Amino acid sequence: MKKIAIIIMLLFTLVSVPAISQAADCPSIVYWDGVQLKPGQIGRVLIQKPTTIYKNVNGKFEFSRTVKPGENYRIYANKSTYYHLGGGLVIRDNADIVYQTPSKSKLSQLKCVKTASTSISIGDRKTTTAAKLGAQQKAVINEFGASTSIYHNNYNSFYAISYLNNKVASVYTKDKNYSFNGVSISNTIAQLESKLGTTYETTGNTYPIEIITYNLPKYEANFFIDVHSDNKISAIYLIDHQLIDKNPNLYPKKSTTLERGYETLLFELTNAERKAQGVAVLQSSSKVASVARTHSVDMGLNDYFNHDNLKGKSPFDRLADSGIAFRNAGENIAMGYTSPYFAHEALMNSIGHRKNIISTSYSQLGVGVYFADWTYGSIPYYTENFIRP
């Protein structure tokens, strides 16, 4: 048996989310003084005097631009002395602005719109789901041999939906408007327990808890916990037992098509995370991906797990040897995770890997995945190379 450096072994079976019909008095769009009220919006600021908007860059507020009297901006959070405009932008609470909140009736209407627009259930027809989420951005094959469609709006409201017989068989999402049995992204563990109870499994009963799994008669619900953000839910992953039955051995069979699918999905998950964290998304680089893929293959074939290869070449050496010029570069590696969802969420809970994923020092990403032979199937090796040319 190969030595497993990083691995999570969980059997995933998952969920039916009750469909919620849209009430007759639930509008498709809510307007506030003629301007659309957006999901997640809690208020607005009206600019009275020239003032500064700042950008959150790795926890520090840096100058972004100066705004003029008469302009107004949506507010999505009110924290300390700053209002958050979304996308990592903030504005200071001072005499240069006026902060206003919508009426309770407006917020009630907005909640209605949010609930209606994010109701996706296991078993829903593919055509119905596509009508709610729009055209798929990409489609890949998953470890169960089913199709996974990726939906997002410039990486906002990110969904990865697997289909079986043209019906929803699994749902992974980072959409803050999505709710499962009253549980949403950014809820705490205590809020999760208040809705679904305290009978659940965790990853090896470790602390801090990284994944909470509820075993229900016909499905499971997995909740990824962000240990670096007050132990709040960062993503929800639901999967129907019928899908699991297609691969009861857990470990996927080696396939070049599946390896490329994992690469695509991990790239998409990284950009969805960056958008959720308020930093610019990365561009895909086929040359960088080739370097990453070569390292994953090398680790898998030669049974090691390290940033430096067996010739002593570092990630920076390997990029340079491939003729890739860069000002900044970084690398994440992972091993053993049976799907990109678990690999990505685990990397986000490791502070050094997390910094690479959401760093503003990079503009391009290449992902390489290789399935190495193993007694029980195959073991995925993951490499992410980040650069700024």
UniProtKB/TrEMBL annotation:
Record domain SCP: where: 268-373
InterPro entries cross-referenced by the UniProt entry: CAP_assoc, CAP_dom, CAP_sf
Alphabetical list of CDD domains matching this protein: CAP_bacterial (cd05379)
Signal sequence coordinates: 1-23
Domain CAP-associated: 122-246
Pfam family, one: CAP_assoc_N
Origin superkingdom: Bacteria
Keywords carried by this UniProt record: Signal
Protein name stated in the entry: CAP-associated N-terminal
Native source species: Psychrobacillus psychrotolerans
